[in-house]
Amino acid sequence: MSTVTVTTWSLEQTSPDDLRPAAEPAGDIRIVRAEIPSPEFSRFLYTAVGGDIGWTDRLGFTYAQWQAALDRPGVETWGAYENGTPAGYVELDPQDEGVVEIMYFGLIPAFRGRRIGGHLLSYGVARAWDLAERWPERPGTKRVWLHTCSKDGPHAMDNYLRRGFRLFETKTAEEEDVESPGPWPGAHA
Questions:
Q1: For residue 128, what are the CA distances in angstroms to 74, 97, 135?
Q2: Which Pfam families does the UniProt entry name for this protein (predicted)?
C-alpha cells in the first residue's frame, strides 16, 4: 500500500461581517435549495464534484446512511445550476452551539474556472449565517467553518480566503493513496 502526504487546513468565520461575497457570474446561474432530502441527488452531486479529487468518505454509505445524514434538522443542500444543468453544490451541516460546517462544497469539473465557485461559496456561506431563520429550532449561527486539503483543486484555498475565511488549524497526515474514483471509471482522463 502506498501513501501520500495530505495537508488539511481548517478555516472559519466568526461573524456574518467576515463574508466578502464574490461577484455574480454572467449568464443564467441559479442556486436552489433541495428542500426534499434526496440520497440519490446528494450522492450524484458528491460523486460528480468529488470524484476527481478523491472524495471517498461517503462512497460506502448505504441508502439509509445517506438518508440519515440528510434528514438531520438544519442540514441543507444548495445546488448551483447553469442554464438548468447541475454545476455544483454546497452542503451545510449545523452543529452544536450555533456552529455550521460547510460539509461539502465544489463544482463539477466541466464548470470549474468559470467564476461560479466564488458565487456559490458566497451564497452558501450567507445561507449558513441565516440558517436559523429557516430552522427556528436551531440556535443562531455564531461560527461558520470548513476544511480543505492539498488534494482539493488549485483554487480552493484562494477562494476561501477571498470570501473572508481565516485559517485556524493545519494538520499533515499520511493517507492511503487511492485511485480517484471519478463519477465512473475514466471520466476525467
A1: 10, 14, 11
A2: Acetyltransf_1
